[in-house]
UniProtKB/TrEMBL annotation:
Residues 1-25 are annotated as: Disordered. Residues 11-25 have a biased composition (Low complexity). Its main location: membrane. It comes from Actinomadura rudentiformis. GO terms for molecular function: ATP binding; ATP hydrolysis activity. It holds the Pfam family ABC_tran. Residues 28-264 form the ABC transporter domain. The keyword Nuclease does not apply. InterPro entries: AAA+_ATPase (IPR003593), ABC_transporter-like_ATP-bd (IPR003439), ABC_transporter-like_CS (IPR017871), P-loop_NTPase (IPR027417), Siderophore_ABC-ATPase (IPR051535). This is ABC transporter ATP-binding protein. The keyword Membrane applies. Keywords: ATP-binding, Cell membrane, Ion transport, Iron, Iron transport, Membrane, Nucleotide-binding, Transport.
Length: 287
């Protein structure tokens, strides 16, 4: 039987949002960032620092600002206030092409591009580095070849992307992100629509590539068990604030399930590896 983890009150406080976590220089620094869409504030003075080489997972309910935070980190959106910087560069003042040299963003879903082969799609990741004229050159550069090889899709290079399975397409999209050759990788729900086998395959692949390429990874995951298993640190968002952050062992508690996810449940440990495992019992009525 799994050992149940306690419920310290400090696990779900909003104090983490008040100031960036102290420590060494950050690869990604979100400093008191606020952002909203018409009629709705999504993020309110959120601060987050991701150290070089760290693997961090963003968790929380739908609409809490996880995907918005990724788009701000990638320079796709600009904050209303506060600052997002990557390797010291202010992303709001960085051109889209320069931002694409610093950060690769794998969106939750991408429209299909009929007729493109795996090779042709992955090659699109080289646009920021090669420019429009460079993209006219025939043949793959070394970075494209390595991206396909590292993700294990090089054998499919000349197959149409729309003929692949969901799991295979997700690997190709990961190769597309790697082809940008950036030090920071942002993943928005990389396991969406995948079965359990392919979820594990993709997350293990991300972990291996992080180690081999010394990448900094910030990933949005809905599955709290998978986030606790693969990430070094969890950041839980609630109502536009950081509700809890830290190692999975200290963050994943019954209090987190109640305050952030709106469910009553228990938390145990995997008997062999020791990571937290959630046992949800019933949903709570949200205010």
């Amino acid at each position: 039987m799994s050992e149940l983890i306690g419920d310290p009150e400090s696990a779900t406080t909003d104090s983490a949002a008040d100031a960036p976590t102290p420590g060494p220089a950050a690869a990604l620094d979100v400093d008191r960032v606020s952002f909203g869409y018409p009629g709705r504030r999504v993020l309110d003075r959120v601060s987050l620092r991701v150290r070089p080489g760290e693997f961090v997972a963003l968790v929380g309910l739908n609409g809490c600002g996880k995907s918005t935070l990724l788009r701000l980190a990638a320079g796709v959106l600009r904050p209303e206030s506060g600052r997002v910087s990557v390797d010291g560069a202010d992303m709001a003042r960085t051109s889209r092409r320069e931002a694409a040299r610093k950060v690769a963003l794998l969106h939750q879903a991408a429209p299909a591009v009929p007729g493109l082969t795996v090779r042709q799609l992955v090659r699109q990741g080289r646009y920021a580095a090669r420019g429009p004229l460079g993209m006219l050159r025939v043949g793959d550069d070394e970075v494209t070849v390595r991206a396909m090889r590292d993700v294990g899709v090089d054998a499919w290079a000349d197959r149409p992307v729309d003929a692949l399975s969901g799991g295979e397409r997700q690997r190709v999209r990961l190769a597309l992100a790697l082809a940008q050759d950036t030090p920071v990788l942002l993943l928005d729900e990389p396991t969406t629509y995948l079965d359990l086998r392919h979820q594990l395959e993709v997350l293990q692949l991300v972990g291996r590539l992080r180690d081999e390429r010394r990448l900094t990874v910030l990933m949005v995951l809905h599955d709290l068990d998978l986030a606790a298993r693969f990430a070094e640190r969890l950041v839980a968002l609630r109502d536009g604030h950081v509700a809890a952050e830290g190692p999975p062992d200290s963050v994943v508690t019954p209090g987190l399930l109640r305050e952030v996810f709106g469910i009553e449940g228990r938390v145990g440990r995997d008997p062999e590896r020791g990571w937290p495992v959630c046992y949800p019992d019933r949903p709570l009525r949200l205010p």
